[in-house]
Write a structure and sequence with these properties.
Blueprint: H1 3-12, H2 19-60, E1 64-68, E2 74-75, H3 77-85, E3 90-105, E4 108-117, H4 122-125, E5 132-134, E6 147-148, E7 151-152, E8 159-164, H5 165-171, E9 178-189, E10 192-206, H6 211-216, E11 217-221, H7 222-228, E12 234-235, E13 237-242, H8 248-259, E14 263-267, H9 268-271, H10 273-311, H11 313-321, H12 326-355, H13 359-370, H14 377-380, H15 391-417, H16 421-425
Parallel strand pairs: 4-11, 8-10
Antiparallel strand pairs: 1-13, 1-14, 2-12, 3-4, 3-9, 3-13, 5-10, 6-7, 8-11, 9-10
């Protein structure tokens, strides 16, 4: 241990006459710790929100989507499926059809988006099966009409329909009800243009956690969609699942290069670019705002060290008269600022890493204490407050905090080194 560091530690240990300076030292440490703790918690919550939102989006959507750039029907999709599955990083691929329709049940009418999917392959490209509350995806399978002696008997089996939870409630249906689906695309008949209409049987409903999906999305089988929208032998596009979702953009570029024109390939980040860009911007803004707390603590360090320099004028003069250089005096007071920064940062890290795993319990305690609901489920669609510790971000916060505290100590240390030992000992 160098004597400069030893002296700096001794200066931080206040005497009876220096209790105020000692209090300021602890306040400075607390300010640094509070700033670091707030940054760790906020970054963890923002990262948790981002991950939760990503999981909800990918709960009903695939990682990569291939469509026709002209927004026309994709023909010969089986050949395209084989080409896509051969791309490195692709784990699964399945066709789909998407269109807008009107859903009618009694006196209730709602405009929705319907997706035609392959019940056997959909589970490989999305997490829809995990989000099913009632029924299964396999219930969408077209069941042939029962026959006897080669002749059809009994009632015609209705094609299955899966609704989002909010849409399920809004339409006032239960599992087993029959609803009418009307397509805005009309068909030509001898009597004129007539909208396409078909009856579907509600076989289940899902909950993704995203209101837009739960309130406006429904699923039918691919064969039913091809027949209903007159897309025999064609689909709207191809859904793709990749091994690493962070590399979805790279894999999408590889698929685009392989398929070429007229296909248009987009990954999940590109399709939701505005949403995730807004989240990233909010994260950066919160980081900038909360870093000001550390700057406030740094100013407090400056004032504490200035008072310490004034209090230790005699000691500085004695050290200089004994041969201490200006560099040694700078080191003594710089070490003090560094110690305050390191201790405060460690306290903030300990508090932050303790709060984040227990954040939901803390929020629950505050809600029960004050009788309020912090995050209403009907507004935020959250059953818990998501949080995820970002160790890389936390490391950067630690380094940034210590550097700020160290820089804040340099000017008082420089002023201390400029003191004339004669002035310090003149009246002694």
């Amino acid at each position: 241990m160098s004597y400069e560091f030893f002296v700096s530690i001794r200066h931080l240990s206040a005497k009876k006459s220096q209790k105020f300076i000692s209090l300021n030292t602890w306040i400075s440490m607390g300010g640094v710790g509070l700033g670091v703790m707030a940054l760790i918690v906020v970054i963890a919550v923002m990262s948790g929100f981002g991950k939760d939102l990503r999981d909800k989006i990918l709960g009903t959507n695939s990682h990569v989507v291939v469509t026709n750039i002209n927004r026309t029907m994709v023909e010969d999709y089986k050949n395209i499926l084989e080409q896509v599955r051969a791309v490195e990083g692709v784990t699964a691929a399945a066709p789909f059809i998407m269109n807008q329709v009107m859903l009618i049940h009694g006196d209730r009418v709602s405009g929705i988006v319907v997706r035609g999917i392959d019940p056997r392959e959909q589970g490989t490209v999305s997490d829809l099966s995990k989000n099913m509350i009632a029924g299964t995806i396999l219930d969408l399978k077209n069941k042939p009409r029962p026959t006897k002696d080669g002749k059809p008997v009994g009632k015609v089996s209705r094609d299955g329909l899966i609704l989002g939870k909010e849409l399920f409630r809004r339409m006032g249906v239960v599992t087993g009800d029959v609803v009418s689906m009307v397509s805005p695309v009309s068909r030509i008949t001898p009597v004129g243009l007539i909208p396409r209409m078909k009856l579907f049987k509600v076989v289940g409903f899902f909950e993704s956690g995203m209101y837009e999906y739960d309130a406006n999305l429904s699923f039918i089988s691919l064969k039913s969609a091809q027949k209903f929208f007159s897309m025999k032998g064609g689909v709207s596009g191809i859904e793709i699942r990749v091994a690493d979702i962070e590399q979805a953009g790279v894999i999408a570029s590889a698929i685009q290069e392989k398929l070429g024109f007229p296909f248009f390939v987009r990954d999940w980040m590109r399709m939701n670019k505005n949403l995730f860009s807004a989240l990233q911007l909010e994260k950066v803004v919160m980081f900038i705002i909360l870093i000001l707390i550390i700057f406030v603590a740094a100013f407090n360090i400056v004032s504490t060290l200035f008072m310490l320099v004034m209090e230790k004028t005699k000691e500085i003069a004695v050290l200089k008269s004994m041969g201490a250089s200006r560099a040694s005096i700078i080191k003594i007071f710089s070490y003090q600022g560094l110690v305050i920064g390191v201790v405060g940062t460690l306290l903030g890290c300990a508090a932050g890493f303790t709060i984040v795993p227990n954040l939901n319990e803390i929020v629950g305690f505050i809600e029960s204490l004050f009788g309020v609901v912090a995050f209403p489920s009907d507004v935020y669609y959250l059953d818990r407050l998501p949080s995820k510790i970002q160790y890389m971000d936390s490391f950067l916060i630690i380094i940034f905090s210590i550097v700020i505290c160290f820089l804040a100590s340099l000017y008082p240390a420089w002023r201390a080194s400029r003191l004339d030992p004669v002035d310090g000992l003149r009246y002694e």
